[in-house]
Design goal:
The chain has 5 helices and 11 strands; from the N terminus they run H-E-E-H-E-E-E-H-E-H-E-E-E-E-E-H. It is of the alpha/beta class and 181 residues long. The strands form 4 sheets. It has a 5-stranded mixed beta sheet with strand order 3-6-7-9-10, sandwiched between helices. The chain has a two-stranded parallel ribbon with strand order 1-2. The protein has a two-stranded antiparallel sheet with strand order 4-5. Helix 1 packs across helix 5 and helix 2 packs parallel to helix 3.
Length: 181
């Protein structure tokens, strides 16, 4: 979804900076300024670095909430029946940018399985967002692993539901909503 959004924004003439985690996707518009990262920490640093100079920031990555406290330099060999891994909270990139926000429009995503609207609105408010794109795993053909998606775009003032569409058409809908904020 992030690449589809970046490609559509570039197609519409925007200057696009895409911070991209590990991906084999090759279909990226050549006009996009691409920054590849491999960790949540690198993604945070790249997002913060670019945020002050942007007009609209759309954060579509599903960054893990927790990170291993210690990253092993080599494969961890099996040494018995049990193994414990200590996890620490990952820096919340969206909330961090929400605190830094001045004139930028900040858009996030929410993937919810229950109380979808309520949970997305809570995230919108807590993270100081201008809009949030709600994905529900309850909708057939939506979410991950499909070529289609069905979203609800929520702002503090409105809620706009969109029918199931191709991811490219969904990207156009999201960008239209962002521009109209």
């Amino acid at each position: 979804r992030g690449i589809a959004l970046a490609n559509e924004a570039a197609k519409q003439g925007a200057e696009v900076h895409l911070v991209l985690g590990p991906s084999a996707e090759k279909n990226i518009n050549s006009h996009i300024h691409l920054c590849r990262v491999v960790s949540a920490k690198q993604m945070y640093e790249a997002a913060v670095e670019r945020f002050s100079s942007c007009n609209i920031a759309i954060l579509a990555a599903a960054v893990a909430d927790y990170t291993p406290e210690v990253v092993a330099p080599e494969k961890i060999k099996k040494k018995g029946d049990n193994f414990s891994l200590n996890l620490i909270p990952t820096v919340d990139i969206l909330a961090s940018l929400g605190k830094l926000k001045t004139t930028q429009k900040l858009i996030g995503f929410a993937l919810e399985t229950e109380n979808e609207i309520e949970n997305a609105r809570t995230k919108l408010q807590k993270k100081h967002l201008d809009g949030i794109v709600l994905n529900s795993l309850r909708d057939k053909g939506a979410g991950f692993g499909t070529d289609t998606n069905k979203i609800t775009f929520i702002t503090p003032e409105k809620l706009q539901e969109f029918p199931l569409k191709s991811k490219e058409a969904v990207a156009k809908d999201i960008l239209t909503e962002c521009i109209n904020l």
